[in-house]
Amino acid sequence: MAETPEGPPEQRLPVPRPPVEPAPVERFTSPPQARTFELTPERAAQVVRQSSNARWVGFLIVVIVALFIAAYWFYELGPLGISEPRLDAETNAQQVTAVERGYNLFEANCARCHGTQGEGGVGPALNRQDKLFAHLNENYLRQVLNAGGRYVCGNPNSLMPVWSNTANPPGPLNYIQIDALIAFIRAPNNQTYTVRDPALNEPVHDPVTGQVETFKGWLDPNYKPAAGATPYPDCWTTEFASGSASPSGSPSASGSASPSGSASASASAGAGGGESVSIVAQGIAFTTTDVTAPADAAFVIAFDNEDAGTPHNIEIKDSGGTSLFKGEIFPGVATKNYDVPALKAGTYSFVCDVHPNMTGTLTAK
Ligand SMILES: [Cu+2]
Prior knowledge:
This protein is α+β, with helices and mostly antiparallel strands. Among the domains are: 87-216, Cytochrome c-like domain (Cytochrome Bc1 Complex, Chain D, domain 2), CATH 1.10.760; 250-364, Cupredoxins -  blue copper proteins (Immunoglobulin-like), CATH 2.60.40. Helices cover 36% and strands 15% of the residues. It has ten helices and twelve strands. It has helices at 9-12, 32-35, 41-77, 86-109, 111-114, 129-135, 138-147, 150-153, 175-185, 246-271; strands at 192-194, 214-216, 276-281, 290-293, 299-305, 311-312, 315-317, 323-326, 330-331, 334-340, 346-351, 359-364. The strands form four sheets. The chain has a five-stranded mixed sheet. It has a three-stranded mixed sheet with strand order 3-5-10.
């Protein structure tokens, strides 16, 4: 080949390559094309294109991963208060489920003695803030449900049975149901829960309005007992024992005040015959729920409490619910004479303050 190509410079390009001289075959073992590597322009362009694609793909993957991490971070931990952390949301959802199940369990098993709102009945009230604050704590509730009513005051004849199926003899409820009941009893009253069908777990609709039925918890999370108040007693009946702690101090004081006020009246009535009405409480109920008393004259109620160790009393209220007479609360077996001031002719109701479902009607005529 000529050393210098002829013609104008543009014709001289591309510079012709000197012909490839194959190396002597005997010195190499690989075939000549393996050594004569040549990058064609197409191939070179392709390499450039591919590597730029590859960089894009890599960049996009990094972006996707970064976005995923950010999204997951928000989902899982809920920073900056934008969303609720996932685990908290899950715990809350489980809590709501437990409360809603507990509501059904309570209505089915407990309401007949403790009232549908926990207001009390045969058994003590459960929905009171002073009791929920510390006395009805989770651990205590668990103990009571495991051991039954005897755990409360040590009364072996307590009406409340054992509930837990781990007790001996076993009760009807398993530990999940016990947990649900405890969650329900201690549910806060600033949250609204849905009433669900126990079998279907579907929300229950009010047949009249068609609205989903709801309920609220009992416990007021902001409740604080008055400074220096005596904590609720371990045994609920001591609340009603005469001359006990501050909460019951005022009713017993008023109870003692009214009989003494009417003592003179009854004395004068006693002179005129002193009519006496007898009322018996037995098995957390008044044996006679309809009593007749004289109108416009003081009379005496001979109140016979036949329930050993269980406190009862009689409070007389008019149709508007105003208390007209409140007898002293005392445990059985005992009898006390209540001096009741004169009542106008009419119908009155009488209740036991310890057991709101002990009621009767008193007719004065
Ligand atoms: Cu009672």
